[in-house]
Amino acid sequence: MNKTVELRRTKAEYLILALVVVLFLSIPLFAGPYHLAIIMDIGIYAIITMGLILLMGQAGQLSLGQAVFFGLGAYSSAILTTQHHFAPWLALLLAIIITGSIAAGIGRAVLRLKGIIVSGVTLVLNLIFSYLVLSLINLTGGANGIVNIPHLSPVKLIPNSLFDYYFLWIVAFLLLAFSLNLVNSRTGRALRTMNILSGGGEETAQVLGINVMKYKVQVFTLGAVYASIAGSIYAHHLGSIEPDIFGAHLSLLVAIMAIVGGMASPWGAFLGAALLMGLTELLGKFASVVVSGPTGAYELIAYGIILMAVLRFLPQGLIPLFQKLPPQSRHSK
Amino acid sequence: MDLSIVLQFFISGVNLGCIYAALGLGFFVVYSVTRVLNLAQGEFVMVGGMLTATFYSMGVPIILSALIAIAVAGLLGGILHCGVIHPARNLSKATQTFLTVGFAFAIEGIALLVWGWEYKSLPNFLSTPNIHFGGATIIGQTPWVTGITLLAVTGLFLFFGHTLQGKALRACADNPLGAKTIGISVDRMSLYVFILAGAFGGIAGAVITPLTMVSYNIGFPMTIKGLLAAFVGGITRAEGVILGGMVLGMAEAIAAGLMPSEYHSIFAMIILMAVFLCQPHGLLSSSGKT
């Protein structure tokens, strides 16, 4: 019975996906550059968050290190193009391989631990990464960062920002389609079986013959690759990066987006990213007392209160509000 | 190597180690009783430092300023427990851990509202001058850092070892269900550890402010440094956290003496990774489980 439900759901999801894709591709026709920039930010955050949702929502591994892999992707792309003169698209692909390999190594070490300790250790990774970036000045430019990162677009048919917009959102939707497939695949079911957060367990999974460690490292690496892609696009889009962006705050913000959006479905990433970025914009406009720089006081307070409220009163996040079927039918026991 | 250099490394290593240990012990007390990783621990440090500096600038004597700040930080720990953790006591430990992240964000935002972007600093406690000893120079605040941390740690051990409340806390850490059965209120004990963790954070904040400047956003970096000490040593035992803090402090002090300045912290980090790959549960892990 669950099989048919899942298939029907999937078809409906693809229909929504197609509608949303058309909507997003047509947005530049009527939105100005300011709103396009915000929607691009949402896309970047959504891709990073989607990686985390696969890891937390499916496999139940609490990671707070997404900013590290976002940073690795951005720095790999920046260094390969500015110092070694690779083509941007090639740099993006190489960044995926670099970040993926590092993530697989880190995952192998960190995922031996269990439960919330993983969240603490991955949080520590943020500090290690920022110290590394600040010390390896020859490679990363230290606190000054890297400037003059070349643009993604190979030929200049349309404005660069428009090209980036389309490229980002096409990538985002491809990754979403891939994630939806993954959730409904053998791997997705294996991951949910070992998810302690939704009633599964690693012992249960092991008894069923699932290679728990292999799947955990795989999904950790996949989440890192998502972040790396977002990082590369970010670096090539802005043209310059600096170390302040890739810190613990970003990792935590991404986790908040995942929790607020809802971790049962990759759609939650888009919901969470859109909600928090929209809120940031609103607060930035209306609360002009202290607000300046990347995050103002009211934003921090709002993030904190929203996170606490969602955890207490909407533990599934916002995504169940948009789903017709109760969330349980998705996670057939 | 010159003896005075060795002495210098040793003194600054112990000093840094004490700071790391003080940051890490807050995690230990909360984790051992509640199994929650309190990611708002660094905010107590921030509040302790900022309040001490604020009261001092208003003309309050420095020791009194520090005591008030430590009390407020402890109170904040109590608020975190009563307002956030206790109502969610039936939810998973992961949820409770993320609740502390929300609390930390809110505190950081309020601190930004109150104090703005400015950095605050303090003179050495009682304006202790730098001490020259055996060819080594000791910054005037160092004896205060080491002394106060040692005092706090001794107090913690005495409390855990020799008072009824401390023994009840250890019982909760050992087996919450068993503790409940013999009539210990686990909720009350969990309130105590949050207050204790808040006060510990406040102490760390007050003693480090003369050494490093503090501002509204040092919370999460302090949280991470404390986690580092706790993980290197093993979060399940107080001795482990202190040992972890000392290892990190020594590594950082030696690196500071031998390497160009930009590599200090990396060296300590590499130690962490090495420890981690060999002993994933810390140097002094009491058992395999976490």
How would you describe this structure to a colleague?
The complex is a heterodimer of chains A (333) and B (290). Chain A is built from 13 helices and no strands. Chain A has 333 residues and is an all-alpha fold. The radius of gyration of chain A is 19 Å and the shape is globular. Chain B has a single domain, classed as ABC transporter involved in vitamin B12 uptake, BtuC (Orthogonal Bundle), CATH 1.10.3470. Chain B is mainly alpha-helical and 290 residues long. In chain B, 52% of the residues are buried. A two-stranded antiparallel sheet of chain B has the order 1-2. In chain B, a hairpin with a 2-residue loop joins strand 1 and strand 2. Chain B is globular and about 60 Å long. In chain B, helix 2 packs across helix 8, helix 2 crosses helix 9 and helix 9 packs across helix 10. Chains A and B meet through helix 5, helix 11 and helix 13 of A and helix 4, helix 9 and helix 11 of B.
Entry summary:
The complex is a heterodimer of chains A (333) and B (290). Chain A has 333 residues and is mainly alpha-helical. Chain A is built from 13 helices and no strands.
Give the secondary structure arrangement, pairings included.
The complex is a heterodimer of chains A (333) and B (290).
Chain A: H1 2-30, H2 33-58, H3 66-83, H4 88-110, H5 116-135, H6 137-140, H7 160-183, H8 186-193, H9 202-207, H10 212-238, H11 248-261, H12 267-286, H13 297-313
Helix pairs in contact in A: 1-7, 2-7, 2-10, 2-11, 2-12, 3-4, 3-10, 4-10, 7-10, 11-12, 11-13, 12-13
Chain B: H1 3-34, H2 41-57, H3 62-85, H4 93-115, E1 131-133, E2 136-138, H5 142-162, H6 164-174, H7 176-181, H8 186-208, H9 219-233, H10 238-258, H11 264-278
Antiparallel strand pairs in B: 1-2
Helix pairs in contact in B: 1-5, 1-6, 1-8, 1-9, 1-10, 2-3, 2-4, 2-8, 2-9, 3-8, 5-6, 5-8, 6-8, 9-10, 10-11
